[in-house]
C-alpha cells in the first residue's frame, strides 16, 4: 500500500491499494499515484537492555520506514498494513510494535557435544534479530524480545507461569500493538486456554507458537512459524488468544495437541481455524470475536484444588464418591469427562 500526500493540494490524499500485499494478499483496486519504486529500507537498529521487571533480557529490533521524495510539493511513504480479508486487516500510518515473550521450548534448543538438546539462553533472541534483519518487507513490526531468565520445557509450565505471562501482558499492554508467546508445545494448548479466561476484555492479538524441531536444524518448522506469527500478530484485527502452528491460526481455548511427531501438531476438533496461511491469508472473519467494550483486566488468582476424571466403562463409582466427599481442603471441584450414553 502506497500513500501519497500532496502538501500543496489542501492535504489531498490518493491511495493505491492494487496489487498484492505481503504473503500474496490481494488488496483490491483504488486510485493510483505516480508510479515510483520504494527505497531500500534503512538498516535496522538493535538496542539491548536489562529488564528490571523480571530479570530477563530485552532486545529491541527497529525497522525504519522508507521515505521517497517526489518533489518539493509531495512525498510518498510506505504504510504499515495488515494481512487478511476486508474488515479484518489493520491499516495504520505508523509502524506497529510487537512484544515477544520467550519462555523456552524446543524452538530455542541446541545440541551439546553429545548431541543432546538443551535450552541455550540468548540463542533464539539472536536468531530473531538476524531473521528480521534479512527481511526487506517493511510491513513487519518493530519487535522487542523479552527472554525470561529461566527457560522452561513445555512440560514444566504451570499456573504460576500463566500468571507471570498475564502480568507481563498487563504491564506492557499499552506499549505494544500485538503479542507473541514462544514456549514448549506440551502445555501450549492449556496455556492458551487459561490465558483466554485470565485476560478479560482483551482488544489485541496474543498468539502462542513454538516448533517441533529446533531452530538450529536444517529441516525445522521454527522459522516459518515464528516469521508468520510475527507478521500476523499486529496485522490482523483479532481480539483474542490464539495458537499458530503449521500455517493455521486457532482459537486458543479450542486447541489441543494431537501429534507429537508431525509439523501439524495442533488441531481444533470442534471449531475451524480462524485463519489459514497459504499463497494468501484466508481469514474466517465470521468466526472472530467482536472488539470488547470494557476495560482490559487480568485475573491471576487460580485455585488448583480440582481433579479431572476421564470416565471409562469400568470406572469405580465408590472411588469417585470418596473423592467427592473428601472435603474442600482436598478437592474443591470435579471435572468429569464422560463418554456417550447412546443415541
Automatic annotation (TrEMBL):
It comes from the Eukaryota. PROSITE patterns: ASN_GLN_ASE_3. Residues 11-56 are annotated as: Disordered. The active site is at 106 (o-isoaspartyl threonine intermediate). InterPro entries: Asp/glu_Ase-like_sf, Asparaginase/glutaminase-like, L-asparaginase_N, L-asparaginase_N_sf. Residues 20-29 have a biased composition (Gly residues). SMART domains: Asparaginase (SM00870). GO terms for molecular function: asparaginase activity. Pfam families: Asparaginase. Residues 46-56 have a biased composition (Basic and acidic residues). Residues 97-286 form the L-asparaginase N-terminal domain. This is L-asparaginase N-terminal domain-containing protein.
Amino acid at each position: 500500500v502506497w500513500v501519497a500526500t500532496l502538501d500543496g493540494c489542501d492535504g489531498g490524499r490518493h491511495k493505491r491499494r492494487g496489487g498484492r500485499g505481503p504473503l500474496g494478499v490481494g488488496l483490491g483496486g483504488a486510485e493510483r499515484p505516480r508510479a515510483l519504486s520504494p527505497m531500500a529500507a534503512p538498516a535496522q537498529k538493535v538496542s539491548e537492555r536489562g529488564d528490571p521487571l523480571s530479570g530477563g533480557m530485552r532486545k529491541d529490533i527497529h525497522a525504519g520506514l522508507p521515505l521517497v521524495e517526489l518533489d518539493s510539493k509531495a512525498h510518498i511513504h510506505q504504510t504499515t498494513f495488515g494481512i487478511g480479508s476486508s474488515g479484518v486487516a489493520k491499516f495504520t500510518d505508523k509502524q506497529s510494535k510487537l512484544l515477544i515473550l520467550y519462555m523456552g521450548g524446543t524452538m530455542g534448543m541446541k545440541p551439546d557435544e553429545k548431541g543432546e538438546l538443551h535450552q541455550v539462553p540468548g540463542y533464539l533472541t539472536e536468531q530473531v534479530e538476524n531473521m528480521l534483519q534479512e527481511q526487506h518487507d517493511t510491513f513487519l513490526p518493530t519487535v522487542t524480545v523479552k527472554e525470561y531468565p529461566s527457560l522452561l520445557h513445555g512440560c514444566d509450565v504451570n499456573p504460576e507461569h500463566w500468571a507471570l505471562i498475564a502480568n507481563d501482558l498487563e504491564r506492557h499492554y499499552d506499549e505494544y500493538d500485538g503479542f507473541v508467546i514462544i514456549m514448549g508445545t506440551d502445555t501450549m494448548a492449556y496455556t492458551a486456554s487459561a490465558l483466554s479466561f485470565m485476560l478479560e476484555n482483551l482488544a489485541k492479538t496474543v498468539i502462542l507458537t513454538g516448533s517441533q524441531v529446533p531452530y538450529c536444524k536444517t529441516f525445522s518448522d521454527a522459522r516459518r512459524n515464528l516469521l508468520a506469527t510475527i507478521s500476523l500478530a499486529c496485522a490482523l484485527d483479532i481480539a483474542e488468544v490464539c495458537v499458530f502452528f503449521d500455517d493455521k491460526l486457532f482459537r486458543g481455548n479450542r486447541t489441543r495437541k494431537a501429534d507429537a511427531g508431525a509439523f501439524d501438531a495442533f488441531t481444533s476438533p470442534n471449531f475451524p481455524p480462524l485463519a489459514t496461511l497459504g499463497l494468501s491469508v484466508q481469514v474466517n472473519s465470521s468466526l472472530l470475536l467482536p472488539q470488547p467494550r470494557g476495560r482490559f483486566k487480568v485475573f491471576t488468582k487460580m485455585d488448583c484444588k480440582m481433579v479431572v476424571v476421564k470416565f471409562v466403562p469400568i470406572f469405580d463409582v465408590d472411588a469417585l464418591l470418596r473423592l467427592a466427599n473428601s472435603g474442600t481442603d482436598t478437592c474443591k471441584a470435579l471435572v468429569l469427562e464422560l463418554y456417550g450414553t447412546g443415541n
